[in-house]
Amino acid sequence: MIRLTAERTPAGTSYLATGQGHPVVLIHGVGLNKEMWGGQIVGLAPHFQVIAYDMLGHGASPRPDPGTGLAGYAEQLRELLEHLKLERATVIGFSMGGLVARAFALHHPERLEGLVILNSVFNRSAEQRAGVIERTRQAAEHGPDANAEAALSRWFSHEYQAANPAQIAAIRQTLASNDPQGYLTTYELFATQDMYRADDLGGIQVPTLVATGELDPGSTPEMARQLAERIPGARVVVLEEQRHMMPVESPRLVNQMLLDFLRQAEPFQNQAKGIVA
């Protein structure tokens, strides 16, 4: 069992770090925190240096200033890498974390070794956009857990919920304990920024994987395909029978996909660093 103690950067970002090798940074989704990555930390740390952190407005990290955009969330990650004395890293973003990973790739390309976007959003339909805007309104009126039950139903299979009631209850409590303003600032970005600098995505020049679950209703396979089409050479993986929280529900399946990608990307990363195999 890997037991980690959270540390903080000078700006207050709370993070966990373990393992050695190429650095891999994990960015959680809106309403969650770095603890969601337990399965990935166990699976990846024997092979890589793994860093998971709390996004602005979440967990033990500070709230974003009013009006903070995705560039500010990307800057949080840059400051974390600076603190850890890491010139470059592979960034894995889940859901809202995928938007932050995209923003980081665009604002700080010199710090990026590879990019993985999991279960994230792109080019929502009018109906999808209306639904997420309504959930934003409900969160503003009733707080971070306004949509908890509906969210859990979207995120997990019924079988997983029934078999893991304690874990589901813990995630429900995580949602409820979010700072209301930090959560709302982040959720508003999640709801509105799916096309953030979409025309610039063609400039991303690192190995990229875009993946989602076959049954993910909010981060659909079609979204993954459309996003990957914008990024040169990006791979698309759709995991059969998986829903939104596939990193939590099926960590072995997701870890194998990530390890396959990361190992294939290593020659590129070594070349970028001037390392001759």
Automatic annotation (TrEMBL):
Assigned keywords, A-Z: Hydrolase
Keyword field contains Hydrolase: yes
EC number: 3.1.1.24
Gene Ontology cellular component annotations, sorted alphabetically: membrane
Molecular function terms, GO-annotated: 3-oxoadipate enol-lactonase activity
Alphabetical list of SUPFAM superfamilies matching this protein: alpha/beta-Hydrolases
Domain AB hydrolase-1: 23-250
Pfam family name, one: Abhydrolase_1
Keyword Hydrolase: yes
Name this polypeptide is given: Beta-ketoadipate enol-lactone hydrolase
